[in-house]
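Q&A log
Question type: sequence-to-structure
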Amino acid sequence: MSVRAWARVAGAGLMFAVLVWRLGTGPFVDGLRSVDAGALAAGAGIALLTTVCYGWRWKIVARGLGVDLPLPAAVAAYYRSVFINVTVPGGIVGDVHRGIRHGRDVSDVGRALRSVAWERVAGQIVQVVLTVVVLLVLPSPVRSFMPLVAIAVVAAVVGIALMARARPAGARSAGARLLGGAAGDIRDGLLARRAWPGIAVLSVLVVGGHAATFLIAARTAGTTAPLARILPLALLVIAAMALPNVAGWGPREGVAAWVFGAAGLGAGPGVATAVVYGVMTFAGSLPGAALLVVAWCRRTRPPGRTRSQLRKRPARA
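Response status: OK
Response body:
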């Protein structure tokens, strides 16, 4: 395991240690005990919808970069990716896996990995914009900082749009070639007229699915606060999941404890909600485990005789 991976594990472990030291094990146990069949079924159903949106978004970006793939294959690959991400430390191992497998299928691993990276970037941008809008409108512990954050986000989006227009010419250095390649990817994969509307709508649906899962988790954990009070907290916790974590755990529980406590709902219920959310997410990713097993069986199964070989009979002497 690399130094970065060990640091990620250590950071998540320290986060849990601090939470247990300050709150005890009660919120974790309460979260696990409150999970019921209804919450698991809701998690699986929402995960199906969000995974289809994920796969569709990836297909759009990949098509723009010239490595298109069928929607069923994209959804299946994304299911496998999500399961790996929620079970293996790192948070991006599943994305690397689907990028490499797709790249081998189309004989262009580099372009396929770029399609995965840009698809994730596009989703993060839409998520950040939605989160900032909601936090500007609804009360939250960070509302006073949001005007400055909004200015920074607008500047970043404008910067990306300007970078997409960059067309370095002449004798180019390695940096110029890198900038030109990134600009071309953004133009063709993200900002093309046939791409960006679908990417935006699908990303909004994905964020809505995650927020709905968190709201169900909050109700399952016993939080009865109004929707308008929980939604900003949900988006803050979901944003924290982009931080280095161990299979999704660590920053999510820490930020949930902080924002719930700052909002007057209690740090304990925040941790319990995050635990329920984690279990629901894991349940929703289980089809990916089945798809991984099927793919492994296909790779390890010895090749059998084809139908034409079966039809052929050895000549009698």
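Response note: Confidence is low (pLDDT under 50) at residues 306-310.
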